[in-house]
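Q: For a teaching session next week I want to show students how multiple molecules come together into a single three-dimensional assembly. I've collected the sequence lines for a complex. Could you give me the predicted structure tokens for the whole thing so I can convert them for display?
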Amino acid sequence: MIPFLFLWIFVTSFADLISVSLICRHGDRGPRTTVPTWDLPTPEQLTPLGMQQQVDVGEFLRKRYVDDLRLFPTEYSSKDIYVRASNYNRTIMSASSQLAGLYPKGAGPNNLYNYPVLTELKHDDFVARSFQICPTGIDIWEKTKVSQKYLDAMSKYDEQLKKASKLLNVDVNYDTLEKYQNAMECRKQYGGLDPAQEESFQELSHALHTQELFYYPNDNKEWLKVTDGVLFYELFYDNPAQDGMVTANLQEKIALNKKKYRLYSMHDSTVFATLRSLNYSIPSHPYYAAVVIFEFHASGEYPNYKNPYVKFYYQPDEQSARNGDLWVPFTPRGCVKSPVDGDGCTLDSIQKEFSGDTFPISQREKYLTEVCGRKDVDRYAPAPRTTTKGGPKMLHLILIAVLGILLAVSVVLIFTRCQKIFKDRKANKEYFPINN
Ligand SMILES: *[C@@H]1O[C@H](CO)[C@@H](O)[C@H](O)[C@H]1NC(C)=O
Ligand SMILES: *[C@@H]1O[C@H](CO)[C@@H](O)[C@H](O)[C@H]1NC(C)=O
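A: Of course. Below is the structure for the complete assembly, covering every listed component.
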């Protein structure tokens, strides 16, 4: 009886799942920088291990959302999914690897694994890493870097950085910390670390985490607006704009409300920033193929949903993720528990919490100028409207044709007239009296 009761609770509590959004980090990749003597995978590219990690995540998600919860069918349909990657090889390939796990039959002929993945120029990607492309975001970090609080917190690690520099024979400082910590992480996977290197790696990892808590602040509204103003709007207010934020001719309430699965294949930075903006207490750097999940639940039909609420999940511990034991629910800031499901937050409470910080497409210019601080806003102005109807275009053509004919006739007339004049001149010189 008891197991049945549990089963019943499990099934009914998910009966109203409408859609799921995922912010993912790409899988295992080559390092951003290397140590001369180490032979590591190709810099920055997704490795076969990274692809496998994403396939595994995709299979896990299929089991949950397709097999168990029947959110969308097993056969691929572009109607069901929205897939967006930042403009990097590793995130685009991670997206397609995850989809290969999600749709084992593929999307192409002969079950080919071939999926459309939307991407945006790095310079224009306000969803993935706007704190790196917005002058205001960059400024915030520049100020933080010289603040006493930051300097005091980081000075604890001075000795350890010096030690690492000696050990690796490179310059590990606060600007290169992330790269060398990552090179060591990569070496650990591909070749192994000796005990001294392992100890140094652990120290650098702590130093990096401390630095990242400053880099991704959870108490700075300006930073939250820059970083997650566009993404949170897509997640909690409306749905992704099909061609990204900067495209001019899109409608705000696009049919994406009907997409069941929305994958944002991005970076550790995107995952970190998202979690910090939600005031999740993040214990360590997001591992490869880490996923933040937002489940949107409601009863009733679009657009008249009743009791909408959101459930948030993240798996903080890489090891349990590898055991196939993904995702622990968490409670973000501003959450008012849903009366329908104690693990969920009412959509209303989440919208209230972030209402002043998010930017719909209609506020594109405000976001770009006031929040992001971009000066090149003209680039994003809507393209001039061109009419494509047959009528006016045809009229233009006819007008041009008529003018052309008139021009041709006049040329011929003038030419023949001139010929006549010259003939007359030859025949009768008095016609043009010559003054000798
Ligand atoms: C991405 O992959 C392509 C080949 O598909 C390669 O030519 C290119 O160099 C890679 N880009 C980067 C930035 O690594
Ligand atoms: C974020 O969480 C911490 C505790 O983890 C809390 O002290 C703080 O008030 C929270 N901030 C907001 C804005 O909710």
